[in-house]
Design the sequence.
């Protein structure tokens, strides 16, 4: 999937019927389980995370497969019943200092068996889909046990009291955008407390482009302080503490453009924050959440086009989704390695034969000037990414715009043909 940049079995098989049949039999084999495929997500992440401060970024994406009323392909409802497909929850490990993608940590892939009639407040957390946030964070404690520090980063859906109460530990922190105006132990509410904090600093940051929002410079005002949230009145979870002490960091956009939704983030974290510089660092760690959004983009329209799959059963589609997520992560690692700030080896994404092919291509792209020479250590992932980007049409000059996912897609497709021919050189 990585080298052909597709999740389509026909394209993966190169049009060979025998290969298509083999792929389909693999996905239909009862011994090949979703659980086993998910376990393979993190096979190299533990080593990559050793001694680093890791941002363990998690989020959920809906994979909408085309169905008809007569044939739902065994898929449950998604998107408030407007479509049918698979739900994917994934956690990415990102180096907090360099922004380098270290690999997948864990997650889950599932389809809904039907609508649940028991009201949400009357169900135990273990019986709710929201337990995925806690379960995946627990996986991180094992997979990232060699890391120097872990900060789990998530958006509003992860603001669950049981998560604040049960997950934090030594060098294991949480950072989540606040979902609601929680009650505080000393009286008042979370939002009232934020409004009472004194302004601490101002800064201008670049907001990345998102659907329906062009990139822009935003002038932000920062304030922060300690808060102690109270246990919700309606919780039915046993043995939860009456309160949890946290830090609230709030950023508000000043003078936003007309008709634009202003930035207003209320960030809760278990990190202690005493100075403005530390508060801005919390904001930057939260902004790194875009990395997992990029993973989902590579998985869908701007890369593997997983939702175009014509497989006819939910069982096969669940397995295909698990495999495609790992492939999308490897592509993301190439994109993140392009600046060379992290030192992951090329073996994170390429086998021995492919690395030998990269060595040959490296000689071909050895520039006549310093500016056109691969600046990264040989056999590093950044070294490989530079070569792949050149194959995709990037000119290699430092002043040029950095190569993005589309350039890497073209480069990977070209590289696949070259690597295949290289593997046959002695045949």
Sequence:
């Amino acid at each position: 999937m990585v080298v052909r940049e597709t999740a389509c079995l026909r394209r993966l098989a190169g049009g060979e019927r025998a290969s298509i049949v083999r792929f389909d039999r693999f996905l239909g084999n009862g011994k090949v389980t979703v659980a086993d495929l998910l376990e393979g997500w993190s096979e190299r992440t533990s080593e990559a995370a050793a001694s680093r401060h890791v941002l363990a970024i998690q989020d959920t994406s809906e994979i909408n497969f085309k169905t008809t009323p007569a044939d739902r392909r065994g898929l449950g409802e998604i998107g408030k019943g407007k479509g049918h497909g698979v739900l994917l929850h994934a956690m990415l490990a990102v180096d907090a200092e360099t922004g380098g993608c270290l690999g997948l940590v864990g997650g889950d892939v599932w389809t809904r068996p039907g609508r649940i009639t028991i009201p949400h407040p009357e169900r135990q957390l273990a019986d709710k889909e929201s337990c995925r946030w806690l379960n995946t964070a627990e996986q991180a404690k094992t997979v990232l046990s060699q890391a120097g520090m872990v900060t789990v980063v998530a958006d509003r859906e992860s603001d669950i009291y049981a998560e604040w109460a049960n997950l934090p530990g030594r060098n294991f922190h949480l950072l989540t955008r606040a979902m609601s105006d929680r009650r505080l132990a000393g009286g008042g509410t979370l939002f009232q407390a934020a409004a009472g904090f004194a302004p601490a600093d101002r800064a201008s940051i670049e907001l990345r482009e998102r659907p329906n929002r062009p990139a822009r410079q935003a002038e932000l005002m920062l304030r922060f302080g300690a808060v102690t949230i109270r246990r919700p009145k309606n919780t039915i979870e046993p043995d939860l503490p009456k309160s949890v002490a946290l830090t609230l960091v709030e950023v508000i956009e000043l003078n936003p453009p007309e008709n634009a939704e202003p930035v207003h983030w209320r960030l809760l974290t278990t990190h202690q924050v005493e100075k403005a510089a530390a508060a801005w660092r919390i904001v930057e760690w939260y902004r790194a959440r875009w990395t997992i959004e990029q993973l989902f983009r590579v998985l869908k329209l701007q890369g593997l086009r997983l939702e175009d799959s014509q497989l006819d059963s939910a069982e096969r589609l669940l397995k295909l989704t698990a495999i495609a997520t790992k492939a999308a992560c490897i592509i993301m690692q190439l994109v993140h390695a392009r600046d060379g700030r992290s030192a992951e080896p090329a073996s994170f994404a390429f086998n021995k034969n492919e690395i030998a092919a990269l060595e040959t291509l490296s000689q071909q792209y050895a520039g006549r000037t310093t500016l056109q020479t691969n600046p990264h250590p040989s056999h590093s992932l950044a070294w490989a990414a530079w070569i792949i980007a050149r194959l995709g049409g990037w000119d290699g000059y430092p002043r040029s715009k950095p190569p993005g996912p589309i350039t890497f897609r073209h480069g990977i497709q070209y590289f696949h043909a070259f690597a295949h021919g290289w593997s046959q050189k002695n045949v």
Remarks:
- The first strand starts at residue 53 and ends at 64.
- The chain has a mean pLDDT of 90.
- Residues 314-337 form the longest helix (24 residues).
